[in-house]
Amino acid sequence: xxxxxxxxxxxxxxxxxxxSDRPSSTGIAANDAMAGLDSALNxxxxxxxxxxxxxxxxxxxxxxxxxxxxxxxxxxxxxSFPLLAMDFAHHEAPLTYQAPAAAQAPQSSNGRALPTPLxxxxxxDSDWLGFPVIGEPYSGAPDFPLEKALTGDKLLKDNxxxxxxxxxxxxxxxxxxxxxxxxxxxxxxxxxxxxxxxVMERQPDTxxxxxxxxxxxxxxxxxxxYRYTIMQGVFSDQLLKRNQLYGFDPVEFYGIVYFPKVAQxxxxxxxxxxxxxxxxxxxxxxxxxxxxxxxxxxxxxTFMGINAMLRLNQQWEIMFQVDGGNxxxxxxxxxxxxxxxxxxxxxxxGNDGLxxxxxxxxxxxxxxxxxxxxxxxxxxxxxxxxxxxMMTEAYYMWEFxxxxxxTPSFGPxxxxxxxxxxxxxxxxxxxxxxxxNYFQYLVDNKNYLSLRTDFLxxxxxxxxxxxxxxxxxxxxxxxxxxxxxxxRPEIRWEHAFNASPYDNGQRKTQFExxxxxxxxx
Length: 521
Fold this sequence. Notes:
Structural class: mainly beta
Order of helices and strands: HHHHHEEEHHEEHEEEEEEEEEEEHE
Helix content: 10-25%
CATH superfamily: Porin
Radius of gyration: 25 Å
Strand content: 35-45%
Largest sheet: 17 strands, antiparallel
């Protein structure tokens, strides 16, 4: 969902714990060699006993930071509440951070799935696009300090994970009022709280093939980014009627059932879920860079309906979905049936992955001023070697009876964007095309560089409010201070060829230096 200012629419026509319980040897008499030896042996014995007690925990911490940890049934024991302070010290002390083996090379064992092609961390994911990868172990977070503080091991023993993150940001921009149509960091030259997110989930164990399993996921977001994820009919008055800068959005809420005996596994979810195709994602930690491409800004964000993934073999999976249209609750009068059919393929050597097809197709007609986006999309991932890989995505979107700028907010007009009601009606078919490429270089197990090239063609202006072709270049550096804290500075330049959409219709070109911080809990 994207909202443009009405003015723009009119222009179209811890510190570490250093305590030690080890005994001191200062009382050993210099002339008592045997007593000294006994004392040293006792110290060694106690240190070894303590190390053995902590070893399973540290193994779990490093492994769970990888996006493909061991299966639930084989996961090492997790610590209870008394180890929480030690957990924070482990994660926040850069000198003690050790990346998992996956950061050095693709895994050799990955459940029933092929070995993962990418090291994660530092990359946001270890596999090519297409979720879920049936047969691949799953964990949503590097660790669970909040959950362990609140419940100890109780939820984790039932494979229920609770975690989240805070995501403050700042940008310097050549625009003064609004960075739109750039999304997420929408207002210039000031700090913002983009996302404060809490996730609770239980993912089915798709590695096993012996029994039906179940799961769920609930994701709740507060911040400026709600303006992009909001779904009409789900607390949407914050944006569509009041045009609030900050708001709350339950981005995801769905249940899951896994059937291991259907083909090589069938995974079905029902509820509200994130749109499947894109390289970029609505949730902060799942992205290569801080900011987003223009093509991502204006395509579908979430659906409400039924979404299923069927595994045929290690290389092929098929996705099918039926929903009420993009960013639309099924009980709203603007909702209409839409369908999706996509396929995932990966090469046996892991060097290539394809994910694409029909994300949404139905009547494609705007109802009650709300978009009904139709979309064909394809993504391709390619690994050149252990250091370089790229991701490329292209789509074609259309709908009938659109309004300039897309789904409107009827709230007050704001300098940062949105408000003022619908734009100009566009009879007939409106179209848009997008193309983006991400090129990544792995520096080491805590750093990578990313270069993004982005094109969006909006010839009728139904996505951005301006009839123009857009082009942008972004280069960013991502650094993990620890598994729990990351920073993502970047430099971005963008240009509109046939209009002046930036800074509320005043500029054809925009330059920005920005960064965000991801603090996990």
